[in-house]
Design a protein that fits this description.
The chain has 542 residues and is of the alpha/beta class. It folds into 3 domains: 179 residues, Alpha-D-Glucose-1,6-Bisphosphate, subunit A, domain 3 (Alpha-D-Glucose-1,6-Bisphosphate, Chain A, domain 3, 3-Layer(aba) Sandwich), CATH 3.40.120; 223 residues, 3-Layer(aba) Sandwich (Alpha-D-Glucose-1,6-Bisphosphate, Chain A, domain 3), CATH 3.40.120.10; 134 residues, 2-Layer Sandwich (TATA-Binding Protein). 33% of the residues lie in helices and 25% in strands. The strands form 6 sheets. Strands 2-6-5-3-4-9-8 form a 7-stranded mixed sheet, with helices on both faces. Strands 20-21-24-25-26-19-27 form a 7-stranded antiparallel sheet. Helix 11 links the parallel strand 15 and strand 16. The radius of gyration is 23 Å and the shape is globular. The structure holds 1-O-phosphono-alpha-D-glucopyranose (G1P) and zinc ion. Zinc ion binds next to loops.
Length: 542
């Protein structure tokens, strides 16, 4: 039976960098999720009778919202919903399923690398028919709709069994439960030289993958252990848990420290990697080396032709603005266009759709290509393995050779988490006010060459995005970027991105903190971080 439920709008249902993310307690309020989902459905034009893809990273509240979404999709006239078994789909797998089955769009339930559990975070994101995150024009329309919404539609029906593969019905709508892994694993097999990677592993190459008790466990087990023949203990923390075992499923030095310890310890394997809550992020390590995501993007771009899918070369490379310029050097050397976009994967969608770029990346452990419209953690792992299988050199050797050819962009991001919102806004506003006068300023040995508030005009649809981060560029190619996070759920997070370029012939083997010392000091001087936030050091360094 179709029910129409009268509601009053909830304030603050504004999608951030990647969908609507809030504490589970917020989502658990009666009608809260329903209002947001109805707002999504209300702004979609032509969805009647169409197919919707549905799945999430398996965090606490995932199963409940899957049921709610199914009943609302049926009440809103969708013809079919394709659901990953158990309500599971990694973000890249969801993107692929949307594309493969020609769906109208998809709803992905995830708060990515944020912690999960009854007291932690949940999120809902809408992806469009190209498989990518809804662009700003749609997320803005969804937000506007949430502010005036007065009712939602839902089918009054019993919960569906979402744990058996097969097809059932909900009212007039078909519900198709699919294996969440198979389509994605097949796609990976079509892109890479699995035989070469299998031979590498069979020859004694040792690897380890930390799934962090998040969604990539089943994907990595199928691909690395079953299809590529890696030993059964290759995937660590491979069972997805609703609270990720009480940890942050965020692959960085702090939250994946066991992996780091192992890769820097005695008897380290040849290759180590980890992914995040919903499987779109990746970090790459070799024995005794961490490859920064910015470097990883550059190294993948420089070597991608070694994998079958990219054998004929790349159309172009895109990186988010705070990502280091390492990829720019590769683009320059290969004669490829390089696009610098605002933070967030949604800005890559148009470039990929238009065939302007093949590979994209963000400093926040995100890399991907035109095979889907999301960043893709396991894809990056497999491209690295394909390159290692082709070159038969170690990760450290590949990195060293890369820097010797292109120079090295020493890079780090400093995060100040949970700071006072007004203080954070004040810091950015004060910097913004000083932008016109910063050029020429000397800070220690550094001289500001230019400073601006990054704005981006999409070259495909000409849409303009302003206020995407403060850039302070120094003479010699060093740089500081400051912006506030758009994915946090409590207080504000200030991100400070630090980058120093060391050209070919310079000292390419320094420890990153040493190489960045003067930039760290300059950031504090220019942005008054200590005095405005009350913090004398960052919470997380990535
Ligand atoms: C963060 C990352 C950004 C990424 C996003 C979603 O956003 O910085 O690169 O696209 O998560 O995974 P932020 O919190 O900085 O707005
Ligand atoms: Zn993620």
């Amino acid at each position: 039976m179709l029910k129409t439920v009268a509601v009053t709008p909830f304030p603050g249902q504004k999608p951030g960098t990647s969908g609507l993310r809030k504490k589970v307690a917020v989502f658990r309020q009666s009608h809260y999720a329903e209002c947001f989902i109805q707002a999504i459905f209300d702004v979609l034009e032509g969805a009647a009778g169409q197919t919707l893809v549905l799945g999430g990273d398996g965090r606490f509240w995932n199963r409940e919202i899957v049921q709610t979404t199914l009943k609302m999709a049926a009440a809103n006239g969708f013809g079919r919903v394709i659901v990953g078994r158990g309500g599971i789909l990694s973000t890249p797998a969801a993107s692929h399923v949307i594309r493969k089955y020609g769906a109208f769009g998809g709803i992905i339930l995830s708060a990515s690398h944020n912690p999960g559990g009854p007291d932690e975070d949940f999120g809902i994101k809408y992806n469009i028919g190209n498989g990518g995150p809804a662009p700003e024009r749609i997320t803005d329309a969804i937000h506007a709709r949430t502010e005036v919404i007065d009712h939602y539609r839902i089918l009054d029906a019993a919960d569906l069994d979402i744990d058996q593969i097969g097809e059932t019905r909900l009212g007039d709508m078909a519900v198709q439960i699919i294996d969440p892994v198979a389509d994605y694993a097949d796609l990976m097999e079509s892109l890479f030289d699995f035989a070469a990677i299998r031979a590498l592993i069979a020859g004694g190459f040792r690897l380890t993958f930390d799934a962090m008790h998040a969604v990539t466990g089943p994907y990595a087990t199928e691909i690395l252990e079953r299809r590529l023949g890696a030993p059964a203990d290759t995937v660590l923390n491979g069972t997805p848990l609703p609270d990720f075992g009480g940890h942050h499923p965020d692959p960085n030095m702090v939250h994946a420290h066991e992996l780091f310890d192992r890769m820097f310890g005695p008897d380290a394997p040849d290759f180590g990697a980890a992914s995040d809550g919903d499987g779109d992020r990746n970090i790459i390590l070799g024995r005794g080396i961490f490859v920064t995501p910015s470097d990883s993007l550059a190294m993948l771009a420089a070597n991608a032709h070694l994998a079958p899918a990219y054998a004929t070369g790349l159309a172009g490379i895109a990186r988010s603005m705070p990502t280091s310029a390492a990829a720019d050097r590769v683009a320059e050397a290969l004669g490829l266009p390089l696009y610098e976009t605002p933070t967030g994967w949604k800005y890559f969608g148009n470039l990929l759709d238009a065939g302007r770029v093949t590979i994209c990346g963000e400093e926040s452990a995100g890399t991907g290509s035109d095979h889907v419209r999301e960043k893709d953690g396991l894809w990056a792992v497999l491209l690295w393995l394909n390159i290692l299988a082709a070159r038969r050199e170690s990760v450290a050797e590949i990195a060293r050779a890369h820097w010797e050819r292109f120079g090295r962009n020493y890079y780090a991001r400093h995060d100040y988490e949970g700071i006072d919102g007004a203080a954070a806004d004040g810091l950015i506003a004060a910097l913004r006010d000083r932008l016109p006068t910063l050029a020429g300023t000397r800070v220690g040995d550094l001289v500001v060459a230019a400073a601006d508030d990054f704005a981006y005009q999409d070259p495909v649809d000409a849409s303009l995005s302003r206020h995407q981060g403060i850039r302070i560029l120094f003479e010699g190619g060093s740089r500081i970027v400051l912006r506030l996070s758009g994915t946090g759920t409590s207080g504000a997070t200030l991100r400070v991105y630090l980058e120093r370029y060391e050209p070919v012939g310079g000292d390419l083997g320094r420890a990153t903190p040493d190489a960045l010392v003067d930039l760290i000091a300059a950031a504090d001087t220019l942005a008054e971080i200590r005095s405005r936030t009350g913090r004398d050091q960052p919470d997380v360094i990535t």
